[in-house]
Amino acid sequence: MTGTPDRAAPPTGGLILDGTKIAWHEDRIRAWERGERIAPITIDMSLTRACNYGCHYCYAMLQENDRKDIDQKVIYAFLEDCAEIGVKGISLVSDGESSISPVFIDTVRYGSELGISMAVGTNGFVLNERKLEEILPHLTYLRINISAGERARYAEIMGVKEHWFDRVCTNVRDMMRIKQRDGLAVTVGLQMVLMPQYADQVLPLARLGKELRPDYLVIKHCSDDEDGTLGVDYDGYERLYALLHEAEALSDETYKVVVKWSKIATGHRRSYQRCYGPPFIIQMSGSGLVAPCGMLFNERFKKFHIGNICETRFRDIWRSDQYWEVMNYLASPEFNAQTMCGTLCLQHKVNEFLDSYQKTGAVLPDLSGEPLPMHLNFI
């Protein structure tokens, strides 16, 4: 692939959707440099492996592992452990649809009460007005995964019936009405996982967002595993640059269309070999499995599986030698992210930052006079 897109100006309001906020966590970086066992800043997890959708681009189907049920006792203990050791943010995203878990609302509320920043990525289908009233006051952000702006294509791409599209749109309208009525700080966004064959839906979705009025629509790449199982045509993204710029031009003062150019332009390439990110941001499966990242959830990567919160308290997993043996291996010369990983993982931007910092001996930026970005605890 040749050429690079013109860089659009970052969105206003301190919302960083294409980058990393790790530089604002200097205390954690310094502790990591000293070899201390740091708590993750962010944990990306799910409450279940189950999902009510069948999205064609879904990476979760590549992440199958031994399923266990995360019940209220398990999740409350987990949240208490996170608060105790210093986890700052928990995003309910990962490899299942957390909103269909029976402990979903309790998890959001209790985590918030413990002082943890809580966030949700969801297809939004079951989030009716009653549930929204309960969770929105406790969330930092709520992001709706929606990869089409037209009913028929929505049904085709996301593996559901056409009328489900209408219900999700109604739920988004309710989110914004409740947010505005109560003056809530929660950010509501839409997310399109773009494969080149979904190009016909870029503008319809951007226009739909302009109608529904969430805070933003973010358009991101699609991750694939190291074997290319999903068949993502990364060279095909370059042909969409003009279309993506056209979508961005639909932004206005209160609705932003943001393309994750850094990853779309990068394709499947990484500039680094060592994986430094997991101590700062880890992923957990909806089965309760603790692993460095979602790309390693599958049973064939069992040597990277550290424990399960359904069986062992998270604080004990985090303190274990096995946890840190896995983290240290990923950051060692024995591991090569360019050849042993899938494409552009959750930790990618954090890895880029830390790799450059380690290689160049660069000084951390002085951010003391800078305004704090939104969603600071989701790096």
Could you walk me through the main structural features you see in this protein, from its secondary elements to its overall organization?
- The protein has helices at 26-33, 72-85, 104-113, 129-135, 151-158, 163-182, 202-212, 241-248, 261-266, 314-319, 321-330, 337-340, 348-360; strands at residues 42-45, 89-92, 117-122, 141-145, 187-193, 216-220, 256-259, 281-284, 289-291, 307-308.
- With 379 residues, the protein is of the alpha/beta class.
- Strands 7-6-5-4-3-2-1-8-9-10 form a 10-stranded mixed β-sheet.
- α7 (202-212) packs parallel to α8.
Short description:
Helix content is 33%, strand content 12%. The protein is an alpha/beta fold and 379 residues long.
